[in-house]
DNA sequence: AATCCACAGGAAGATTAGGATA
DNA sequence: TATCCTAATCTTCCTGTGGATT
């Protein structure tokens, strides 16, 4: 047993010549230098300086698409601020991801706990938690910066927290609070209470997406540390950057792509990461994405997709909405489901198209009407097996194509 | 040029699900 | 726990349309 495992891992370990420090490529890592974000960093820093003088900084809203460095910049500036604060003028930065901590109660509890208050997971009235937090805050003179990442997630279900937090200063004697909201939805303030909107959006910072060149520099900076020297083919980074720039300048994706390319190269026992690995990695990411999307599809959409797969297997050419609908209507009783109307199926197909699982075009056959022709943009066998993992669809597993052809009236 | 197929897709109302609130 | 509210889902009804056929 021991010799086997030693051999097994020794083998794999011997190949560890690609990565020097893989974690640097993970999205959770906050680098000490953020290229092409100097402007935003300075901006945010100058908004927050008053904190060091004991004054209240403006509240800030930070906007930008995913992977534009919002969180990294905010955390970085926050860290610097804490380090720069003096003994007699304490600055505290509290970071909260609202996607994880997503209710008024949890946020207040989280904040209170940060000041070593004991708050039970559940049970207390919300205003008691609020009072506890406020008291803890006011115990000593300090400026507290609360960073709310993904605030838009919070707004969807009531903006009471934001309202309460933006007003907390008037309840405080010694301390001051300022809020930094981070959102990837540019229009989310539209759903805010106007009072909250004006107090939260005293200042705004926009994070534009990176272009290919900027992503390249970011990748290079990290790759220098993350990879062993010479283990990257020259064209690898530009290629990753180009792919990511196509996908709306998301640096996180670019880093994922680079990391997965490296992992694939490692697994393939290659000592160098090549373009081939990058392309493989891109395909793998895409495949994982599709798999994830399909798994979380509502049952009706899965049935529609299944119908299309069956039609394709059956060799039907020019799959139209009606063909899909007929097939779908036959499948529904097999899984004991009510069937939806034609109109709705049209919408579901449009949604699948949006998700990039299907490809549809409207074609006109003149006298013989107008239809939407549907083609799968993913390999159907793979799709089928993913769909069959759904227990609600298990009765379809044995549905054979010829039988369907016979039923198709 | 007029016709007309077979469906796309908009509008609006109905239903449902989930979540808050009393 | 009942009830109320809202957003999402779904239906009904409808108008619009590209181009082969007449």
From TrEMBL:
GO terms for biological process: DNA replication. Keywords: ATP-binding, DNA replication, Nucleotide-binding. Gene3D superfamilies: 1.10.8.60, P-loop containing nucleotide triphosphate hydrolases (3.40.50.300), Winged helix-like DNA-binding domain superfamily/Winged helix DNA-binding domain (1.10.10.10). Residues 305-387 form the Cdc6 C-terminal domain. Transmembrane segments: none annotated. It holds the Pfam family WHD_Cdc6. GO terms for molecular function: ATP binding. Residues 56-211 form the AAA+ ATPase domain. ATP binds at residues 68-72, 210, 222. Belongs to the CDC6/cdc18 family. NCBIfam families: orc1/cdc6 family replication initiation protein, PRK00411.1-3. Involved in regulation of DNA replication. This is ORC1-type DNA replication protein. It comes from Methanothrix soehngenii (strain ATCC 5969 / DSM 3671 / JCM 10134 / NBRC 103675 / OCM 69 / GP-6).
